[in-house]
Amino acid sequence: MYTLGIDIGGTHTDGIIINHAGQKLAWAKTATTTPLTEGVQKLIAQLTQSVNPAQIGNVILGTTHATNAILEAKGLLKVGLLRLSDSLPKSPTVGFGWPSLLKNAAIAGMESTFGGYDFNGRPSSRFNRSQVQKAIAKLLDQKAEAISVVSAFATINGSQENEVAEIIAAMAGNNFPVTLSHQIGGIGFIERENATLLNSALKNVMSEGFGSIAALLLQYRIKASLWMTQNNGSIVNMEEAIAFPIKTIGAGLTNSFIGATKLVGVADAVVVDIGGTSTDIGVVEGGYARTSLHAATIGGIALHCALPDILSLPLGGGSILNHCPTSGWQIGPHSVAKELTQLSQVFGGSTLTLTDAGVVAGKLPIANDRTKIFLTVQEGDKILSQICHTIHRAVIRLRGKKQDLPVIVVGGAAPLLQKLYTEFQLAGTMPELGGIANAFGAALAEVSASVNVVVSLDNREKTLNELKEQALRKACEKGADPAKVRIAQLSAYPLTYASGNLAKVSVLASGPRLFPCQI
Amino acid sequence: MHLLKTKLRHIHVSDLDALALGANVLGSGGGGDPAYDLLIAKEQIETYGPAPICSVQDLADDSLVMPIGYMGAPLVSLELLPSMEEFPQLIAMVEKYFDCSVQAIIPFEVGGSNLFAPFAVASQLQLPIVDGDTMGRAFPQMHMSYCNLASISCSPAFIVDSVGSGAIVKAKTPIEMERYLRALTASMGASTAVCTFPMTGTQAQKAIISGTLSLALKWGKELQDAKYHKEISLAELLDKWGGRCHFQGVVSDIESSLEGAFLSGKITIAIEEGKNAYVYYQNEFLAVEYAGQFIATTPDILVLFDEESFQAIPVERVQYGLKVTICSLLAPAPWLTSAGLELVGPQAFGYPTQYKHH
What we know:
Distance between the termini of chain B: 45 Å
Helix content of chain B: 25-40%
Mean pLDDT of chain A: 88
Largest sheet of chain B: 8 strands, antiparallel
Strand content of chain A: 25-35%
Radius of gyration of chain B: 19 Å
Strand order of the largest sheet of chain B: 16-15-14-13-12-19-17-18
Low-confidence stretches of chain B: none
Strand content of chain B: 25-35%
Structural class of chain B: alpha+beta
Helix content of chain A: 25-40%
Largest interface: A-B, 44 and 49 residues
Mean pLDDT of chain B: 90
Structural class of chain A: alpha/beta
Number of helices of chain B: 11
Largest sheet of chain A: 6 strands, mixed
Oligomer: heterodimer
Shape of chain A: globular
Number of strands of chain A: 23
Distance between the termini of chain A: 12 Å
């Protein structure tokens, strides 16, 4: 049974087919299109030339589609927010601090009603259905196309939010899009509210983008289970990904970092992913992308989702080069981006780019006429040293004292960074298939399961062990290899002031998929 | 505002991010992550105008000054957003009790979200905030206040929750007051707004630590500069502030428990292969142990920095695997006296060591 991994990025759609042992059978790269399915169709047509489609049992998609929709504020639903909290919180108002473009596109209005839970999980005695009905009617009057419901301490008890969802269904119909904050999870009202809002706003974008992929696969006689990768590097079924797009928002980067380490076969590394406009540098530890300390943000909006902790530099194959007589070569921050093949000198344009420097220095296998590039070999060489110097410094900063971490360079413009290994003497490799690291990462995504509860830790060790067992069992039920499944994250946070030694415990178990499997 | 002697200064929205960075440092890990109060303060200031600030010397002798802040668990305040009625209600209670209008408010601690608590209400009511606080940092308990050292009466104290319940509390001693207020807080959903040590302008001049808001703002701006321009290292910055960086390491374990209704515990930080430093905390970071010795303790301000972002990490945000730099800053002067050390030194928290500045 084979797995097809697909990565749909802003510029390229990549795919790779691997067998049950993780061996690479076929791979391809096409341009990303609108609608997305065109590019995916082209990709699958190429891949199935050499591989029997009937052998493909799982298709795993990774994408930045939802992220881009937020950054561009395109195709979003207008969302009404209902806050359930006895304090009837008025400030910060919904979407305070968001970019105004996004706020205007995604927010219809906000209402607060009594409700929620206290820190022990005790429900508010003020919760009142008719007050909720009035608030929902107001949101619908404000032309909300979806509703997000956030109650205080919903992560401890979600039943009040469920009751509100029933009220909404009775008033607006069963198909009216709703997101409940306990389905998203995470302590922290505002971050959870932001994630819950964006999730509702993205529902159409996701179903329009991916709703027809299953039918497309069937056209190519691929009767596989269809999955998407989520932020923590594991898979989620397509139905859930469409219902909870926010869970996939950081998966593109995760796939690239994980794919890179898996291409090389290490569990710990610094990964440098250099594309057309930017270079993302991240750290993989124990097979997982290191996530950000501070609440992660997408387009400036604070979220809960653990997103990879990256250092992003405006340096890529399309970076524009400018020569300044006093300070030398300035590389970027502007890039020709998607127009590389029209604007850069090696392709007959008039703009000098980093790709041109790579070509004259003999690092890029572009067969065009080098005489069109106004750069000497020495200049090209010097420019590559300069960007490697910048990236080298960033790598050193990011890896800190872990000096023995190998450095893996992937992405379309990877060959430009060979000097990291020679001149700058970093240990590591540049895998041959680095251009499709993202798709490979998607194909190898794990399965995970989490347990989030508030429990008494009077009997700490026993309780934690039981919760760990529970998470491991859940992961195996979802298809993780029982021999390799492990606890990936564990946190136990006591609730100050609570009696009974209560703590909020979160356990995440994750493991590679058991091959061959139907998951 | 006839009770103020000079013109007011103002804190603008553009100052708040820096103030939050500085508040995290002075909080010694405590006071609550200011993230939400920062958003609320920004929104209120955008709506009602900049928050007025005065110096303690500007207060008229008989003016009524109110130290305020939140009492409650950091984790709880991340879920229970304020109604925004709490502080106006508290001020109304105080004014009714004393039959006199409040002339200025002051944060009872300069750390974390408690530095921010006064800003929203100061903007809303255009009521001045005194540039200072009653701890010079953050401490876990109400009686660990310079007002206590200065023999200001803590009674009566005023406490309200976010649904409009409230109480006026009298106690014989500050320690008892701490105990009663904490019990009330626990039964009011673990998140309350509190005023203790209400005082006059004359008393405030002797009983507060002056200039700490300005200090938080100054340090915050220096941290922002350091983060964006990278011309100064964290160690150089700490040196400039009269502090020092002790170790860099990775958080390898977080033990936490509830002792006497506080979040207490021990963070293990792997310094190098086989060598650990331990940071003890009770809401705030209070002591650092390395190789069997306490190398830094309260009342010095202990800070765990994320060196990449030049950000001080609040105690509730410390995570497994985090790379941190352990730093300490000299305690505010009033705590270095023998009476001060008796109240907030290492032995007051049960650490078997004498205070030494390193």
